[in-house]
Design goal:
disordered C terminus; Pseudouridine synthase; binds uracil; 6 helices; 4-stranded antiparallel beta sheet; Alpha-Beta Plaits; 17 strands; Structural Genomics Hypothetical 15.5 Kd Protein In mrcA-pckA Intergenic Region, Chain A
Length: 268
């Protein structure tokens, strides 16, 4: 996990900043053995902690850092609800966020049966920026279809097809060399809106069912090496990438028949 979301700070400052007590009293609590960091009692003063990552308790109670902004890039598996609760008891993204010291909320949503990159944050302004249609942040998906559309059909997606809620268009669509089946084909599609089941409805409109759907990038932020169910914290670079409205037009060598362009990235 990337730990550079914020810098390390002294434990007594962390406790005081959270508003539960003064820095001096925090020192007393530490000396008394009432403070635990990631399950271990810490009695030395001057220990530094990572507010975005370390779990700090005082007298057994979790201390939530004050004013801490957290940005999480999560690989949502399929069959997980993009919600922080579910009255029917289905798995939700919250199940994966239990360890976080602050509550975060999903930015936009992925369908139950869609997997891939989902951002979560407690920064409402950031969430709005990413999700707002005016920001037109490109979202890149890989879609497995039950057939091979013609160029003419794909061009329709670029020109725009009408789906519930109005016309929807892709800014890019191309075949990618994934899978070996003759029956199914994979396509990369980039859209810069986020309407309900938009990718599925657009392909349906040209006569194809989406059998599998995976979001691989938001703006310039790629899913990279993340595995299903894993998350990383975003630092300033990752945040900037997620907010980028630019997208790279694939060069000739990435046209259908060559490798997909969403090569995994390391640190962000
Ligand atoms: N489009 C869809 O159809 N589903 C998603 O989950 C996201 C985009």
């Amino acid at each position: 996990m990337d730990r550079n979301i914020d810098k390390l700070i002294r434990l007594n400052k962390f406790i005081a900043d959270s508003g539960i007590t003064s820095r001096r009293r925090a020192d007393d609590l530490i000396r008394e053995g009432s403070v635990q960091v990631n399950g271990h009692t810490v009695k030395e003063l001057g220990v530094r902690v990572h507010p975005g990552k370390d779990r700090i308790t005082v007298e057994g109670k979790l201390v939530r850092p004050a004013n801490q902004r957290l940005y999480v890039a999560f690989y949502k598996p399929e069959n997980v609800l993009t919600s922080m609760s579910d009255p029917h008891g289905r798995p939700t993204v919250k199940d994966y966020m239990e360890e976080l010291p602050v509550r975060v909320y999903p930015v936009g949503r992925l369908d139950w049966d869609t997997e891939g990159l989902l951002l979560l944050t407690n920064d409402g302004e950031f969430a709005q920026k990413v999700a707002h249609p005016r920001a037109a942040i490109p979202k890149t998906y890989l879609a497995k279809l039950n057939g091979v559309p013609t160029r003419e059909q794909l061009d329709k997606l670029l020109r725009g097809v009408s789906i519930p809620g109005g016309k929807a268009s892709a800014i890019h669509v191309s075949r990618v060399p994934l899978g070996t089946s003759q029956q199914y084909a994979w396509y990369k599609i980039i859209i810069n809106e986020g309407r309900n089941r938009q990718v599925r409805k657009m392909f349906e409109k040209i006569g194809y069912d989406v059998k599998k759907l995976k979001r691989v990038a938001i703006g310039k932020l790629e899913i990279g090496h993340l595995k299903k169910g894993q998350y990383v914290f975003l630092g300033p670079k990752g945040i900037e990438e997620a907010l980028s409205s630019e997208w790279e037009r694939p060069s000739k060598k990435f046209r259908p028949g060559s490798r997909p362009t969403n090569r995994p990235k390391g640190r962000r």
